[in-house]
Design goal:
Elements (H helix, E strand, L loop, with lengths): L17 E2 L2 E9 L3 E8 L4 E8 L7 H15 L9 E7 L2 E7 L3 E3 H8 L4 H20 L2 E2 L8 E4 L4 E3 L6 E5 L6 E3 L17 H4 L6 H17 L9 H10 L15 H10 L11 H11 L24 H25 L1
Antiparallel strand pairs: 1-2, 2-3, 3-4, 4-6, 5-6, 7-9, 8-11, 9-10, 11-12
């Protein structure tokens, strides 16, 4: 088959026959931008998921660049809680993103089918997600649309984060501490699913990884209670509540008690003040690790106990050692002078 030929379409259900080395099996789902299919990678003998931009949408230069950016960002992340990207193709004017196939369903569907989760199950689910977010943030990548629909639950119960389509990468602007935003959207443009947007996203303000943590709080609130912390009957009311109102009370209907530390974590993540939220996904991961059953997670150093950096880049521990060494040297000189005097 010629790799540069457009995919053949089956007229009965519009599922492509094949594109490049990938032979399509069936449609997995649809969304506003396109469809997702299950396919076979005939070169490596594995199943893959392929996202195709809807054939009735105009593949503009901006959309094309956003899709290539999603592929680059996701491909740069190597973490068990993040869906891997294998390939990108353009055929016959359509765009195809080839990804790891997760044999399961997204978290939102599971919640809709089974209802709220028990607190221990939420903790077990959230811990690897926090680790995955921390890995993305360590690469300077902010997801910007972190929600239950973008968490896939595999057959083994392990979650994976997907869909970095509107992510942005914070990159160094120069030798200083300033950062620049690689996002294609202009400042003040609101992107993302409205119910999980952080207040700063709603207002069009500058965002950083702590915006993902707000969305993480929405996800955990929904998983525990079965409802949105700010949800209203329409998007405008919901956005208004995100900016102006406190979240609804967190009520978990399960008979198992809701740990106070978990409740405090969720409500802290939903703080409107960036500085009042946990300051990193690694901090959230550590907090969740303390709530797991003993031995269920590897030892994670507490970010709260890590030596903070002083303005010149030295940790307090290193600075203290340096001062101690200088004082000791001065004391030796003084004693030496006294001895010879």
């Amino acid at each position: 088959m010629d790799d540069h030929s457009p995919p053949k379409e089956k007229p009965d259900n519009n599922v492509p026959d094949a594109v490049g080395p990938y032979r399509f099996r069936r449609q997995l789902g649809t969304g506003g931008m396109g469809e997702v299919f299950l396919a076979d990678d005939e070169r490596l003998n594995r199943k893959v998921a392929i996202k195709r931009i809807r054939s009735d949408r105009l593949l503009t230069a901006e959309i094309r660049e956003r899709l290539y950016r999603e592929a680059r960002y996701a491909a740069s992340l190597d973490h068990p809680a993040i869906v891997r990207v294998h390939d990108v193709l353009e055929r016959g004017g359509a765009f195809y993103l080839v990804m790891e196939w997760v044999a399961g369903e997204d978290l939102r569907r599971r919640l809709q089918r089974e209802g709220p989760m028990a607190p221990p199950d939420v903790i077990a689910l959230a811990h690897p997600l926090a680790s995955g977010l921390a890995a993305a943030h360590a690469q300077g990548i902010v997801h910007r649309d972190f929600k239950s629909e973008n968490v896939l639950i595999g057959g083994d119960g392990q979650p994976k984060i997907t869909d970095f389509g509107i992510a942005k990468r914070m990159t160094a602007a120069g030798d200083g501490d300033a950062k620049k935003d690689e996002s294609l959207t202009d400042s003040g443009t609101v992107l993302g699913t409205y119910r999980v947007l952080s207040p700063e996203q709603v207002l069009g303000d500058e965002i950083d990884p702590r915006s993902d943590l707000f969305s993480f709080g929405v996800l955990l609130f929904e998983a525990l209670s079965g409802r949105s912390p700010f949800g209203e009957s329409n998007s405008l009311e919901t956005l208004h509540r995100i900016v102006e109102n406190e979240p609804a009370p967190l009520i978990c209907p399960h008979p198992e008690p809701l740990p106070l530390a978990l409740k405090d974590l969720v409500m802290g993540l939903l703080s409107k003040d960036l500085n009042a939220r946990p300051q990193s996904a690694r901090e959230v991961e550590w907090t969740l690790a303390t709530l797991l059953p003993k031995g269920a997670a590897a030892e994670i150093p507490s970010p709260l106990n890590s030596a903070p950096k002083t303005p010149d880049g030295l940790s307090k521990a290193k600075l203290g050692a340096l001062v101690f060494g200088l004082l000791a040297a001065i004391l030796v000189v003084i004693l030496g002078l006294a001895y010879f005097a």
